[in-house]
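Researcher: I'd like a structural prediction for the single chain below. Treat it as a standalone chain; there are no partners to consider.
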Amino acid sequence: MLPFWIETAVDVPVKKVQKEEFGFRTLKAGVDSRYLGVEEIDARRFGSDDLYALIRESGERPSRRGTQQLAEQAKEILKGEYIMLTGDLNITDVEWIVQYKIKDARSYLFNIRAPAQAIRDASQAVMRQLIGNGSVDEVITIGRIEYEIAAKEALQKLLDEYETGIHVVTVKLQSSNPPQRVRPAFNEVNKALQQKEQRVNEAMKAYNETIPKTKGEAKKLIETARGYAAERVNRAQGDIDKFEKILEEYKKAPDITKQRMYLETMTKLLPQISEKWIIEQSGAEGGILMKLDLQNQQQPFRKEILK
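Model: Treating it as a single chain, here is the predicted structure.
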């Protein structure tokens, strides 16, 4: 290298992972990390030097009217970074980080004048395009991972087109929320939707438990009724067949059949009668036969009748 500032050596940290933050700044990294964002500014958790550094980094001139004016100026810079319009015309606050490495020192030094600002501009352009093509629900809830992947790919493609010599390591969405003024109402809506989903799931659980059981019981009743109907029909058919057989025999010998039917009937009925009177019809006048009651010793005799 020639002396006297004829040539200059510039150290390029090609192995270092660098980062750019959007919507907030990290004041102190570590276990007890400290950040500077709009909420921290509103809560007055900042120092004047932090505000000056943030404003100078953005390329603006710090206000000299006092700390309050510095705070308002810093808030406007941060809001300009994280306030975005979604595709369904909703406003959302998106904070994210871009981590990158230098993969080509020559391109990094000579193809772009301000590498850090180029990365910030390209990243905001990519992120605003993605957010503008999606819905607020995708940004806040279901689409965060997809947005991170798409933002990394789109940012890398844009930086390669400009031959910046930069490799994007990752794009990480730190937070994506509704605007602070409507955030409580938005949270209440989400809470109501979650409760609705919970009630629907509980109702579906009860439905899945009750309906199959009810269908099974109904099928059981139907099958029982069918079995009972078949039994009654078969029994009636059997009675008909029996009656026809008896009728056929009765026509052949009416007296014998009548006597047999009478005896069969008495055989079934008499055991069900507890008290019986037996009348002897041996002569012109019958008499009552006395029978010793062997089952009841308190009543020595029992009169039974037999017609």
